[in-house]
């Protein structure tokens, strides 16, 4: 979905107001905009949580509960901020304090924690609220308070299309674009595919599944069976048994980590059903696959947009070397080969670039920056993947590359697919 003409006007007006208050901006090399604002031109804008030397950010993650595997992400973020605090003078000259709260993947708890971070901790911004249900539950509050809710850890397409919540923006590729990548792959490689789908019964699952169904329209790829599950379900084995009876030759696995492992294990146990298994990116971590047994997940297909610390192609990559060195130094108890930690490093680096580019180091200035990213390079992203936003495009990353699990790691194949160019604009 793209913004409507009315929506573009609304967002553009917001940015024009912010730009006028900040006195405009120029651009420098590397695609990163620079500040030209005088100190006085930023007066009157919100600076809660920020001083000339400090910056407080708040993150909300499921450190417990059914999606607790994502608890590794804030470890990667904190290690990055600890590194830049100690060795780079912080972010925009400010030492970052990153306060993390646990919502257990429960939307009411997410609202409670958002209030605590904003009203008690007095954070400058909510940096990363994880999960579509939790972010949906909190974005009304964040926008009413005019608190930036930036680079949320969910690919729901609404973060880039809604015009009523200008203070919220995503980061990772949206689920509709990801679904289009899988649909295009099947149309090319298995044009008569019969697909069975398992999806989480919430905004996350419905967004990706809906995008897939729209992307295969007009082709011979068909969905022959679908099963949903609730995040409170103890297991997805009943759903997997039903899907196996469909005779589908492709299985699309739209799950979060815990249920992703269960679905992979159930698929491996059923020797009578041997579909091509596609697992969505959010459940594609090695930590999800390892409990199933690597021998049982050979040939599984997924997609990615940031570098995998387990891939030897990045062994001599400067950013990967830096990442592993600093993880050992600032998060010595963490395993740097866990991709969720790499995700955290990448999104923290993206925030660093956006905050440095902000024409005013204020809440308004940050939001202007994240909605005006111009081909910004982030070294932990795959080559060819950059941050790109504008007044009528609020999706920072819309490029992905397919990958297949071989041996004990993912192997990238094909080229990076820019869904903006390959598939056209998102539509309702």
TrEMBL record:
Q: Does the keyword Signal apply?
A: yes
Q: Where is the composition biased (Low complexity)?
A: 34-50
Q: Specify where the region named Disordered lies, as residue ranges.
A: 28-50
Determine if Signal is one of this entry's keywords: yes
Q: Any idea where the Leucine-binding protein domain is?
A: 54-406
Looking up Gene3D superfamilies in the UniProt record yields:
3.40.50.2300
Q: Which UniProt keywords apply?
A: Signal
| InterPro entries, sorted | Leu-bd (IPR028081), Peripla_BP_I (IPR028082)
Q: Which family does it belong to?
A: Belongs to the leucine-binding protein family.
Which protein, by its recorded name, is this? ABC transporter substrate-binding protein
């Amino acid at each position: 979905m793209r913004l409507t003409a009315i929506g573009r006007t609304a967002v553009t007006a917001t940015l024009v107001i912010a730009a006028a208050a900040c006195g405009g901006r120029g651009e420098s090399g590397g695609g990163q905009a620079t500040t030209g604002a005088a100190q006085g031109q930023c007066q009157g804008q919100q600076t809660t949580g920020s001083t000339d030397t400090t910056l407080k950010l708040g993150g909300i993650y499921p450190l417990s509960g059914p999606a607790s595997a994502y608890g590794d992400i804030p470890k990667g973020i904190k290690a990055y901020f600890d590194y830049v605090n100690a060795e780079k003078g912080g972010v925009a000259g400010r030492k970052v304090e990153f306060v993390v709260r646990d919502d257990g993947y429960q939307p009411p708890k997410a609202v409670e924690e958002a209030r605590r971070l904003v009203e008690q901790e007095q954070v400058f911004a909510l940096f990363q609220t994880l999960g579509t249900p939790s972010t949906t539950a909190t974005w009304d509050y964040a926008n009413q308070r005019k608190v930036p809710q930036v680079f949320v850890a969910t690919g729901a397409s609404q973060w880039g299309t809604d015009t009523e919540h200008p203070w919220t923006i995503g980061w990772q590729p949206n689920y509709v674009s990801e679904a289009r990548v899988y649909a295009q792959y099947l149309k090319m490689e298995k044009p008569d595919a019969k697909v069975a789908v398992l999806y989480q019964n919430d905004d996350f699952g419905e967004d990706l599944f809906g995008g897939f169904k729209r992307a295969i329209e007009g082709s011979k790829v068909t969905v022959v069976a679908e099963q949903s599950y609730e995040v409170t379900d103890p297991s997805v084995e009943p759903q997997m048994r039903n899907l196996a009876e469909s005779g589908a030759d492709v299985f699309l696995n739209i799950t979060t980590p815990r249920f992703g492992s269960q679905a992979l294990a159930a698929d491996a146990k059923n020797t009578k059903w041997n579909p091509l298994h596609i697992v969505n990116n959010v459940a594609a971590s090695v930590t999800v696959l390892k409990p199933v047994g690597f021998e049982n997940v050979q040939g599984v297909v997924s997609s990615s947009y940031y570098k995998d610390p387990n891939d030897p192609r990045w062994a001599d990559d400067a950013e990967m070397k830096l990442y592993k060195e600093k993880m050992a130094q600032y998060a010595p108890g963490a395993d740097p080969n866990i991709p969720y930690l790499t995700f955290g490093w990448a999104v923290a680096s993206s925030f660093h670039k956006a905050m440095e580019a902000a024409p005013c180091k204020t809440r308004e200035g940050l939001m202007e920056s994240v909605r005006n990213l111009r081909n910004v390079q982030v070294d932990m992203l795959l080559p060819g993947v950059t941050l790109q936003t504008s007044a009528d495009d609020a999706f920072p990353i819309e490029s992905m590359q397919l990958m297949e699990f071989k041996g004990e790691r993912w192997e990238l194949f094909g080229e990076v697919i820019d869904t903006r160019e390959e598939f056209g604009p998102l539509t309702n």
